[in-house]
Input
Amino acid sequence: MRKSIPLFDLKAFLRGFARPFQGGRFLFANRGLKRYAVLPLILNIFLYALAIAVFMHFLWNWDIYRVEWEFLGPVGRWLSAAVNWMGWLLKAVVAMLALGAAFFTFTGVGMALASPLNDILSEKVEMAYVGGYARMAMPFRFTLKAGLLSAGDSIRNLFRQLFCTLLAVPLLLVPVVGFLPLFLVGAYFAGFGFLDSAMARNFLRPRHKKILADGAFWEIIGMGAAMQVLFMIPFVGMLLMPLGVVTGTLLYCGADWEKLLSEAGVEKPPGFIPPVREGAPGGGGESALDRNADPGL
Output
């Protein structure tokens, strides 16, 4: 039987808020992980820098103040003069809106574009967590299908985030607290996006993911909120995307999947064996991937 999502859980939120810092310690404590964190980082920086450069180029060359309004007579000439005077102000407003949209979609877009590289990082984090580096044996078809599923789920989550963001935007008109729904939407999808890297890679489908997403709802929001705050640091925020992948993977690895699926009455998907940390009851130091050299695809 699935538990209902509480209206608010402060302890879970704070626990989630602390997770990125725990993920950072885990990343720097395992030397071999750093090189895998650099790959998605470089890709995200390049793509976002390219997108911003292209946008700014077109914005700079947008001659809105040169539009001819004379056909409206004296009123048109007045409008033309007003638009000419406000041209740079309008460009500044458009630029701010675009940067705001980029901020709230940064995680979703970054996770979708760098999905294959994030999967590699997530896989290495899982193996470091369970202590299975020496026993990795994975067929190409397993890697290929897991990567395609992860990319598809990232794109699906991006569209869900865009839809929820559009619903939350009108609430910005509400004084004082109007920003909160939009921030919570961004925080949830940021946290879930990082968690989804590990879940999709291990063949968990939406019905399986929903179990953990509902059970750790406020912890996911707390984790996403911490990442959103870190993203606000100029230039530095973009460098923290791999940290989110590490943090989400650790949340996935720490879940008791046998218990979660059993209590929800949901069968395990084909090829899925929950990660068990080395030394834990029933654990042999192998990751879910190691123990499934041929998942029967």
User: Anything to note?
Assistant: Residues 10-42+104-264 form one domain.
